[in-house]
Amino acid sequence: MKITVLGAGGGEVTGSAYLIETRNAAVLVDCGLFQGGHRAEELNKTPLGADSARLNAVVLTHAHLDHTGRLPLLAPAGFTGPVYATPATIEMTGLILRDAARIQFQDAERINRKNLRAGEVPVHPLYSGEDVEHILRQLKPVPYHEPVAVAPGVQVRFVEAGHMLGSASLQLFVDDGDVRRTLVFSGDLGPKGAPILREAEPFSQADLVFLESTYGDRDHRPFDETVAEFIHILQQAVARKSKVLVPTFAVGRAQLLTALLAWAFRNRSIEPFPVFLDSPMAIEASQIYARHEELFDDEMIAFLKASPMSRDLATLRMTASPEESRRINSIPGPCLIMAGAGMCNAGRILHHLRHNLWNPESQVIIAGYQGAGTLGRQLVDGAKKVMIFGEPIIVKAQIHTLGGFSAHAGQTELLAWFAALAPARPRVVLTHGENPQRTALGKLITERYGLTPTLPALGEIIEL
Hints:
single chain, alpha/beta, Metallo-beta-lactamase, Chain A, Rossmann fold, 2 domains, 14 helices, 21 strands, 21% strand, globular
């Protein structure tokens, strides 16, 4: 048996994809998009090229674009098999991939208008809406906790990962000749104590573990402290009548922040003020969340039973159309604008940043991971000037980084999740982390458990 790291290796956080091959089967775990900078564009090609036709199945840990974004490339390359995922992941994958195709089309149109004037060669989207609809027809729902046969000699068990709605860690039981191996893919693990979703479930048995290491070198600020800082920033913004911009991942972060605002308005930590959810994708994602309350934790269920959130959020406006989004520019503060994309690498947040970054009265709250090369990372790193749509914009707004809202487990939580597997003495492979992060996590695993993790390069083959 061999596993090829087709993404999230070599210090890359995005592009998750792992090909498992036995004598009788080929299964791809995740098929994510690389994000951030020109190198990502070069890496975003069909993971298996013409060999896609030999795949038996794809298995998804969750719906985020860095785990699903290359799926639409598979069918045109010859893949006709099933794509297995939890029901909520299937709904979210449809939402995310359709949005990705739309953004790619719009970006290509905008670039080609400039290229036409300059006499340069036109560019093309990575894939079309038709490619997305094709692959979506191949998605098959699976339940949590029940092993499902996905290919000859390969069964998969999904358990809660606590990262986003429908997310899962995977345990694969793989028969290769007379040998059975147990493989575990953590997927992206969520933090403990965050509201809405249940916490990640660990496994106790594995021969080989692929463990994410996004925050392998540090812990997040405690969630309660982060909420307190969030409320304090908003209290100051209301007093100063500031506009607050929040680059927001449409799936997960938007719902978390909306729930926190509902809580703050309900208990009068902040007097209600105008809030704009300026993201058609986040609006639709919130509707998907509402259809899956069976995945909520006990505290969230109790909060919803006590009083409808719509009563708390009377000042929330969902701005679906471009016209509604543009009108926000003329609305004075105080107000809060949540808009995608979460890494400021696309979407409506770019327009809001363009209109407000130069204003020292504006506030920007960075509430999630920012990939290398993205505009969001530049702001976190203290850039004094940035380029937006080819225009230089001076940065005078106050930039706040709230790492405690991350949907990823911190170092201590990653180690706690792995602790249940450590007695089985599995081989450990650290992926989905930049090199400093996975090196730090690997050192701790060696010190604590006497295991030496592998830190694979992109394209590296791991044999069992």
